[in-house]
Write a structure and sequence with these properties.
This protein has about 90 residues and is α+β, with helices and mostly antiparallel strands. The chain has one domain. The chain contains three helices and four strands. The chain has a two-stranded antiparallel ribbon. Strands 3-4 form a two-stranded antiparallel ribbon. A hairpin with a 2-residue loop joins strand 1 and strand 2. The longest helix is centred in the last third of the chain and has 19 residues.
């Protein structure tokens, strides 16, 4: 049996937050990919993304609305790149 993936679920106010290790690219992809079902049904996805470098003090925030599968794929690719940068493997 393989090692278990660590997934933390937090309820913060009205938010339901999943937390996984940034190195788990495959798990992150599998968690984000189902959003395509909503996009296919005509429901755009509003993404509010924040990031803070491990040694940084400032936080960056980014917002977009995904209306196509192509945009979802591009966002996922950007997340993977950002994850590599945060892990120091740019």
């Amino acid at each position: 049996m393989r090692e278990a993936k660590r997934v933390v679920v937090r309820l913060e106010g009205r938010a339901f937050v999943f937390e996984v290790d940034i190195a788990e690219e495959d798990l992150i992809s599998e968690m984000i990919s189902p959003l395509s079902l909503f996009i296919k049904r005509g429901f755009p996805i509003k993404v509010i993304q924040t990031s803070t470098p491990s040694m940084g003090r400032s936080q960056s925030m980014w917002t977009t609305i995904l209306t196509s599968i192509k945009e979802l794929g591009e966002w996922l690719d950007d997340l993977k790149r950002l994850g590599r940068i945060h892990r120091g493997r740019a």
